[in-house]
Protein backbone atom coordinates (compact mmCIF):
# COMPACT_ATOMS: atom_id res chain seq x y z
CA UNK A 1 0.00 0.00 0.00
CA UNK A 2 1.00 3.63 -0.41
CA UNK A 3 0.72 5.79 2.69
CA UNK A 4 -1.08 9.09 2.58
CA UNK A 5 1.54 11.83 2.93
CA UNK A 6 2.18 13.48 6.29
CA UNK A 7 1.76 17.25 5.76
CA UNK A 8 5.03 18.06 7.51
CA UNK A 9 7.11 15.36 5.76
CA UNK A 10 8.35 17.78 3.11
CA UNK A 11 11.09 15.49 1.81
CA UNK A 12 8.87 12.36 1.73
CA UNK A 13 10.94 10.42 4.26
CA UNK A 14 8.18 7.90 4.89
CA UNK A 15 8.64 6.67 1.32
CA UNK A 16 11.91 5.10 2.49
CA UNK A 17 9.74 2.41 4.14
CA UNK A 18 9.22 -0.66 1.98
CA UNK A 19 5.76 -1.92 1.04
CA UNK A 20 5.35 -4.21 4.04
CA UNK A 21 6.52 -1.49 6.41
CA UNK A 22 4.13 1.04 4.90
CA UNK A 23 1.27 -1.41 5.39
CA UNK A 24 2.15 -1.76 9.08
CA UNK A 25 2.47 2.00 9.59
CA UNK A 26 -0.79 2.56 7.74
CA UNK A 27 -2.59 0.04 9.92
CA UNK A 28 -1.26 1.63 13.10
CA UNK A 29 -2.07 5.12 11.85
CA UNK A 30 -5.66 4.12 11.07
CA UNK A 31 -6.06 2.78 14.61
CA UNK A 32 -4.57 5.91 16.14
CA UNK A 33 -6.77 8.19 14.02
CA UNK A 34 -9.92 6.22 14.86
CA UNK A 35 -9.42 5.27 18.49
CA UNK A 36 -6.64 7.28 20.15
CA UNK A 37 -6.57 10.83 18.80
CA UNK A 38 -10.33 11.48 19.24
CA UNK A 39 -10.21 10.82 23.00
CA UNK A 40 -6.69 12.08 23.75
CA UNK A 41 -7.67 15.52 25.05
CA UNK A 42 -10.43 14.17 27.28
CA UNK A 43 -8.22 11.43 28.74
CA UNK A 44 -5.44 13.98 29.30
CA UNK A 45 -7.78 16.44 31.03
CA UNK A 46 -9.04 13.74 33.41
CA UNK A 47 -5.59 12.15 33.83
CA UNK A 48 -7.19 8.80 33.06
CA UNK A 49 -5.68 5.89 31.16
CA UNK A 50 -7.78 4.15 28.45
CA UNK A 51 -7.33 0.58 29.66
CA UNK A 52 -9.97 -0.64 27.21
CA UNK A 53 -7.64 0.18 24.32
CA UNK A 54 -4.75 -2.00 25.52
CA UNK A 55 -6.08 -5.23 23.90
CA UNK A 56 -6.50 -3.32 20.63
CA UNK A 57 -2.88 -2.17 20.80
CA UNK A 58 -1.99 -5.83 21.22
CA UNK A 59 -4.03 -6.78 18.16
CA UNK A 60 -1.90 -4.42 16.04
CA UNK A 61 0.89 -6.98 16.36
CA UNK A 62 3.68 -4.41 16.64
CA UNK A 63 4.66 -4.65 20.32
CA UNK A 64 6.67 -7.84 19.91
CA UNK A 65 8.16 -7.25 16.48
CA UNK A 66 11.80 -6.78 17.57
CA UNK A 67 11.95 -10.05 19.54
CA UNK A 68 12.48 -13.50 18.11
CA UNK A 69 10.29 -15.03 20.83
CA UNK A 70 7.33 -13.19 19.28
CA UNK A 71 5.81 -13.95 15.87
CA UNK A 72 6.52 -11.71 12.90
CA UNK A 73 9.45 -10.60 10.78
CA UNK A 74 12.00 -8.52 12.72
CA UNK A 75 11.50 -4.82 11.91
CA UNK A 76 14.01 -2.30 10.67
CA UNK A 77 14.92 0.56 12.98
CA UNK A 78 13.26 2.82 10.41
CA UNK A 79 9.95 1.02 10.93
CA UNK A 80 10.10 1.12 14.72
CA UNK A 81 11.05 4.78 14.47
CA UNK A 82 8.09 5.68 12.28
CA UNK A 83 5.79 3.75 14.62
CA UNK A 84 7.05 5.88 17.54
CA UNK A 85 6.55 9.00 15.40
CA UNK A 86 2.98 8.06 14.53
CA UNK A 87 2.07 7.30 18.12
CA UNK A 88 3.46 10.61 19.38
CA UNK A 89 1.80 12.46 16.51
CA UNK A 90 -1.54 11.16 17.82
CA UNK A 91 -0.89 11.28 21.57
CA UNK A 92 2.51 11.62 23.33
CA UNK A 93 1.06 10.02 26.48
CA UNK A 94 0.14 6.81 24.70
CA UNK A 95 3.42 6.88 22.80
CA UNK A 96 5.16 6.99 26.18
CA UNK A 97 3.05 4.12 27.52
CA UNK A 98 3.94 2.03 24.47
CA UNK A 99 7.62 3.02 24.57
CA UNK A 100 7.98 2.12 28.25
CA UNK A 101 6.36 -1.27 27.64
CA UNK A 102 8.13 -2.26 24.42
CA UNK A 103 11.40 -0.34 24.55
CA UNK A 104 12.34 -0.22 28.20
CA UNK A 105 10.62 -3.21 29.79
CA UNK A 106 10.65 -5.65 26.87
CA UNK A 107 14.01 -4.25 25.77
CA UNK A 108 15.54 -5.03 29.17
CA UNK A 109 14.25 -8.60 29.08
CA UNK A 110 15.15 -9.04 25.43
CA UNK A 111 18.71 -7.84 25.89
CA UNK A 112 19.51 -8.99 29.42
CA UNK A 113 17.20 -11.95 29.99
CA UNK A 114 18.18 -15.59 29.61
CA UNK A 115 16.57 -17.68 26.88
CA UNK A 116 14.17 -19.09 29.48
CA UNK A 117 13.26 -15.62 30.77
CA UNK A 118 12.67 -14.27 27.27
CA UNK A 119 10.42 -17.20 26.46
CA UNK A 120 8.61 -16.87 29.78
CA UNK A 121 7.75 -13.19 29.48
CA UNK A 122 8.15 -11.75 25.97
CA UNK A 123 5.38 -13.57 24.04
CA UNK A 124 2.66 -12.44 26.46
CA UNK A 125 4.14 -8.94 26.56
CA UNK A 126 4.22 -8.91 22.76
CA UNK A 127 0.48 -9.65 22.75
CA UNK A 128 0.15 -6.98 25.47
CA UNK A 129 -1.53 -9.47 27.76
CA UNK A 130 1.09 -8.55 30.36
CA UNK A 131 2.24 -4.93 30.58
CA UNK A 132 5.73 -3.88 31.59
CA UNK A 133 7.34 -0.98 33.44
CA UNK A 134 10.94 0.11 33.94
CA UNK A 135 12.08 1.30 37.37
CA UNK A 136 15.40 3.14 37.34
CA UNK A 137 14.86 6.77 38.45
CA UNK A 138 14.79 7.39 42.20
CA UNK A 139 13.27 10.16 44.37
CA UNK A 140 16.65 11.58 45.37
CA UNK A 141 18.35 11.31 42.01
CA UNK A 142 17.95 11.72 38.29
CA UNK A 143 20.92 12.44 36.07
CA UNK A 144 23.31 10.90 38.63
CA UNK A 145 21.59 7.54 38.54
CA UNK A 146 24.71 5.60 37.51
CA UNK A 147 26.55 6.52 40.71
CA UNK A 148 23.69 7.60 42.92
CA UNK A 149 21.39 4.58 42.68
CA UNK A 150 20.28 3.75 46.22
CA UNK A 151 17.87 0.83 45.86
CA UNK A 152 19.62 -2.29 47.13
CA UNK A 153 19.44 -6.00 46.41
CA UNK A 154 20.67 -8.61 48.86
CA UNK A 155 21.00 -12.30 47.99
CA UNK A 156 19.23 -14.55 50.47
CA UNK A 157 19.27 -18.20 49.45
CA UNK A 158 17.27 -18.64 46.25
CA UNK A 159 15.84 -15.13 46.51
CA UNK A 160 16.86 -11.49 46.43
CA UNK A 161 15.56 -8.93 48.91
CA UNK A 162 14.98 -5.45 47.47
CA UNK A 163 14.79 -2.26 49.52
CA UNK A 164 14.48 1.29 48.26
CA UNK A 165 12.28 3.60 46.23
CA UNK A 166 11.72 4.59 42.61
CA UNK A 167 9.96 7.62 41.12
CA UNK A 168 8.36 8.62 37.80
CA UNK A 169 7.76 5.01 36.82
CA UNK A 170 5.50 4.98 33.76
CA UNK A 171 2.84 2.23 33.85
CA UNK A 172 3.94 1.67 37.45
CA UNK A 173 0.46 1.63 38.98
CA UNK A 174 -0.80 -1.26 36.89
CA UNK A 175 2.16 -3.04 35.26
CA UNK A 176 2.24 -6.82 35.53
CA UNK A 177 6.05 -6.93 35.28
CA UNK A 178 8.36 -4.20 36.57
CA UNK A 179 12.04 -4.26 35.62
CA UNK A 180 13.78 -2.90 38.72
CA UNK A 181 17.42 -1.83 38.78
CA UNK A 182 19.09 -2.23 42.17
CA UNK A 183 22.62 -2.21 43.54
CA UNK A 184 23.90 -5.59 44.73
CA UNK A 185 25.13 -5.19 48.29
CA UNK A 186 27.75 -7.90 47.71
CA UNK A 187 29.65 -6.43 44.73
CA UNK A 188 28.19 -2.89 44.46
CA UNK A 189 27.12 -3.54 40.85
CA UNK A 190 23.73 -2.58 39.40
CA UNK A 191 21.60 -5.59 38.48
CA UNK A 192 18.14 -6.02 36.98
CA UNK A 193 15.17 -7.85 38.51
CA UNK A 194 11.65 -8.52 37.25
CA UNK A 195 9.20 -7.83 40.06
CA UNK A 196 5.74 -9.20 39.39
CA UNK A 197 2.53 -7.39 40.26
CA UNK A 198 1.29 -8.19 43.75
CA UNK A 199 4.69 -9.18 45.14
CA UNK A 200 4.69 -8.58 48.93
CA UNK A 201 6.76 -5.56 49.87
CA UNK A 202 6.00 -3.64 46.66
CA UNK A 203 3.83 -0.53 46.96
CA UNK A 204 2.84 1.70 44.03
CA UNK A 205 1.39 5.18 44.52
CA UNK A 206 0.06 7.29 41.64
CA UNK A 207 1.84 10.63 41.15
CA UNK A 208 -0.79 13.38 41.10
CA UNK A 209 -1.01 16.93 39.72
CA UNK A 210 1.20 16.53 36.64
CA UNK A 211 1.05 19.16 33.89
CA UNK A 212 2.47 16.88 31.18
CA UNK A 213 1.73 13.36 29.92
CA UNK A 214 -1.24 13.32 32.25
CA UNK A 215 -2.65 10.14 30.71
CA UNK A 216 0.49 8.22 31.66
CA UNK A 217 0.12 6.56 35.03
CA UNK A 218 3.43 7.45 36.68
CA UNK A 219 4.07 5.94 40.09
CA UNK A 220 6.21 6.22 43.15
CA UNK A 221 7.36 2.70 43.99
CA UNK A 222 8.49 1.55 47.42
CA UNK A 223 10.30 -1.73 48.10
CA UNK A 224 10.33 -2.93 51.69
CA UNK A 225 12.00 -6.34 52.04
CA UNK A 226 10.49 -7.19 48.67
CA UNK A 227 11.51 -10.78 47.94
CA UNK A 228 12.22 -11.72 44.31
CA UNK A 229 13.24 -15.23 43.21
CA UNK A 230 16.65 -15.76 41.63
CA UNK A 231 14.75 -16.93 38.53
CA UNK A 232 13.57 -13.32 38.14
CA UNK A 233 17.03 -11.77 38.18
CA UNK A 234 17.92 -10.79 34.63
CA UNK A 235 20.76 -13.17 33.84
CA UNK A 236 22.63 -10.80 31.53
CA UNK A 237 22.45 -7.65 33.66
CA UNK A 238 25.71 -7.48 35.58
CA UNK A 239 26.47 -3.74 35.78
CA UNK A 240 25.14 -0.31 34.86
CA UNK A 241 26.76 -0.75 31.44
CA UNK A 242 23.94 -3.16 30.62
CA UNK A 243 21.36 -0.62 31.76
CA UNK A 244 23.03 2.08 29.66
CA UNK A 245 22.91 -0.10 26.55
CA UNK A 246 19.12 -0.26 26.84
CA UNK A 247 18.87 3.49 27.34
CA UNK A 248 21.03 4.11 24.28
CA UNK A 249 18.43 2.40 22.11
CA UNK A 250 15.33 3.87 23.74
CA UNK A 251 16.84 7.37 23.74
CA UNK A 252 16.64 7.32 19.95
CA UNK A 253 12.97 6.38 20.26
CA UNK A 254 12.35 9.58 22.23
CA UNK A 255 13.93 11.55 19.38
CA UNK A 256 11.43 9.93 17.00
CA UNK A 257 8.61 10.82 19.39
CA UNK A 258 9.81 14.43 19.39
CA UNK A 259 9.57 14.48 15.60
CA UNK A 260 6.02 13.14 15.84
CA UNK A 261 5.12 15.98 18.22
CA UNK A 262 6.64 18.54 15.84
CA UNK A 263 4.70 17.17 12.89
CA UNK A 264 1.47 17.25 14.88
CA UNK A 265 2.14 20.84 15.98
CA UNK A 266 2.87 21.90 12.42
CA UNK A 267 -0.30 20.26 11.08
CA UNK A 268 -2.48 21.82 13.76
CA UNK A 269 -0.96 25.28 13.27
CA UNK A 270 -1.07 25.10 9.48
CA UNK A 271 -4.75 24.07 9.43
CA UNK A 272 -5.59 26.78 11.93
CA UNK A 273 -3.77 29.44 9.88
CA UNK A 274 -5.70 28.51 6.74
CA UNK A 275 -9.07 28.60 8.50
CA UNK A 276 -8.63 31.48 10.97
CA UNK A 277 -9.52 34.91 9.58
CA UNK A 278 -8.36 38.31 10.82
CA UNK A 279 -8.55 41.66 9.04
CA UNK A 280 -10.79 40.06 6.44
CA UNK A 281 -8.49 37.25 5.27
CA UNK A 282 -6.97 33.97 6.49
CA UNK A 283 -4.00 34.58 8.75
CA UNK A 284 -2.03 32.19 6.50
CA UNK A 285 -1.78 35.12 4.07
CA UNK A 286 0.28 37.16 6.53
CA UNK A 287 4.03 37.01 6.08
CA UNK A 288 4.87 36.63 9.77
CA UNK A 289 2.48 33.69 10.10
CA UNK A 290 4.11 31.98 7.13
CA UNK A 291 7.49 32.66 8.75
CA UNK A 292 6.39 30.76 11.87
CA UNK A 293 5.11 27.85 9.79
CA UNK A 294 8.35 27.64 7.82
CA UNK A 295 10.42 27.70 10.99
CA UNK A 296 8.33 24.84 12.35
CA UNK A 297 8.63 22.91 9.11
CA UNK A 298 12.38 23.43 9.07
CA UNK A 299 12.78 22.10 12.60
CA UNK A 300 10.66 19.04 11.85
CA UNK A 301 12.42 18.34 8.55
CA UNK A 302 15.93 18.63 9.99
CA UNK A 303 15.02 16.44 12.95
CA UNK A 304 13.34 13.81 10.78
CA UNK A 305 16.44 13.64 8.58
CA UNK A 306 18.59 13.12 11.68
CA UNK A 307 16.54 10.24 13.09
CA UNK A 308 16.25 8.55 9.69
CA UNK A 309 20.03 8.50 9.42
CA UNK A 310 20.27 7.29 13.03
CA UNK A 311 17.99 4.38 12.15
CA UNK A 312 20.27 3.47 9.26
CA UNK A 313 23.30 3.49 11.56
CA UNK A 314 21.43 1.28 14.03
CA UNK A 315 20.60 -1.30 11.38
CA UNK A 316 24.21 -1.26 10.15
CA UNK A 317 25.48 -1.81 13.69
CA UNK A 318 27.41 1.46 13.55
CA UNK A 319 25.58 3.67 16.02
CA UNK A 320 27.18 4.77 19.27
CA UNK A 321 26.09 6.56 22.44
CA UNK A 322 26.80 9.98 20.98
CA UNK A 323 24.54 9.31 17.99
CA UNK A 324 21.42 8.70 20.05
CA UNK A 325 22.43 11.36 22.60
CA UNK A 326 22.72 14.06 19.95
CA UNK A 327 19.42 13.04 18.36
CA UNK A 328 17.61 13.13 21.69
CA UNK A 329 19.11 16.48 22.71
CA UNK A 330 18.64 18.16 19.34
CA UNK A 331 15.20 16.86 18.42
CA UNK A 332 13.62 17.54 21.80
CA UNK A 333 15.07 21.07 21.84
CA UNK A 334 13.66 21.74 18.38
CA UNK A 335 10.36 20.18 19.49
CA UNK A 336 10.09 22.56 22.44
CA UNK A 337 10.74 25.46 20.09
CA UNK A 338 8.28 24.21 17.49
CA UNK A 339 5.32 23.69 19.81
CA UNK A 340 5.98 27.16 21.22
CA UNK A 341 5.72 28.67 17.75
CA UNK A 342 2.50 26.76 17.11
CA UNK A 343 1.04 28.11 20.33
CA UNK A 344 2.22 31.61 19.38
CA UNK A 345 0.55 31.38 15.98
CA UNK A 346 -2.72 30.38 17.63
CA UNK A 347 -2.51 33.14 20.26
CA UNK A 348 -4.98 32.69 23.13
CA UNK A 349 -6.65 29.71 21.46
CA UNK A 350 -3.34 27.89 21.78
CA UNK A 351 -3.77 27.40 25.52
CA UNK A 352 -7.20 25.77 25.22
CA UNK A 353 -7.36 21.99 24.79
CA UNK A 354 -10.23 22.39 22.31
CA UNK A 355 -7.85 23.78 19.66
CA UNK A 356 -5.49 20.82 19.71
CA UNK A 357 -2.09 22.31 20.46
CA UNK A 358 -2.21 22.85 24.24
CA UNK A 359 -1.69 19.18 25.09
CA UNK A 360 1.36 18.96 22.82
CA UNK A 361 2.87 22.12 24.35
CA UNK A 362 2.56 20.63 27.83
CA UNK A 363 3.64 17.11 26.88
CA UNK A 364 6.74 18.42 25.12
CA UNK A 365 8.13 19.43 28.51
CA UNK A 366 8.21 15.83 29.67
CA UNK A 367 9.80 14.50 26.47
CA UNK A 368 12.42 17.23 26.74
CA UNK A 369 13.52 15.90 30.14
CA UNK A 370 13.08 12.14 30.26
CA UNK A 371 15.59 9.56 28.99
CA UNK A 372 18.44 11.97 29.69
CA UNK A 373 18.25 15.75 29.98
CA UNK A 374 19.64 17.98 27.25
CA UNK A 375 22.60 18.78 29.49
CA UNK A 376 23.55 15.14 30.13
CA UNK A 377 23.17 14.21 26.47
CA UNK A 378 25.27 17.25 25.56
CA UNK A 379 28.06 15.97 27.79
CA UNK A 380 27.89 12.54 26.15
CA UNK A 381 28.32 14.15 22.72
CA UNK A 382 30.95 16.55 24.02
CA UNK A 383 33.01 13.67 25.39
CA UNK A 384 32.90 11.98 21.98
CA UNK A 385 33.81 15.20 20.19
CA UNK A 386 36.79 16.11 22.40
CA UNK A 387 37.89 12.83 23.91
CA UNK A 388 37.54 14.40 27.35
CA UNK A 389 34.74 13.87 29.84
CA UNK A 390 33.26 16.93 31.55
CA UNK A 391 30.94 15.08 33.90
CA UNK A 392 31.07 15.95 37.60
UniProtKB/TrEMBL annotation:
InterPro entries: ACX4-like (IPR045008), Acyl-CoA_Oxase/DH_mid-dom (IPR006091), Acyl-CoA_Oxase/DH_mid-dom_sf (IPR046373), AcylCo_DH-like_C (IPR036250), AcylCo_DH/oxidase_C (IPR009075), AcylCoA_DH/ox_N (IPR013786), AcylCoA_DH/ox_N_sf (IPR037069), AcylCoA_DH/oxidase_NM_dom_sf (IPR009100)
Cofactor needs: FAD
UniProtKB keywords: FAD, Flavoprotein, Oxidoreductase
Segments forming domain Acyl-CoA oxidase/dehydrogenase middle: 133-226
Domain Acyl-CoA dehydrogenase/oxidase N-terminal: 21-129
Domain Acyl-CoA dehydrogenase/oxidase C-terminal: 246-385
Top-level lineage group: Bacteria
Pfam families: Acyl-CoA_dh_1, Acyl-CoA_dh_M, Acyl-CoA_dh_N
Family to which the UniProt record says this protein belongs: Belongs to the acyl-CoA dehydrogenase family.
UniProt cross-references to PANTHER family, sorted A to Z: ACYL-COA DEHYDROGENASE, ACYL-COENZYME A OXIDASE
Protein name from the UniProt record: Acyl-CoA dehydrogenase family protein
Organism: Actinomadura yumaensis
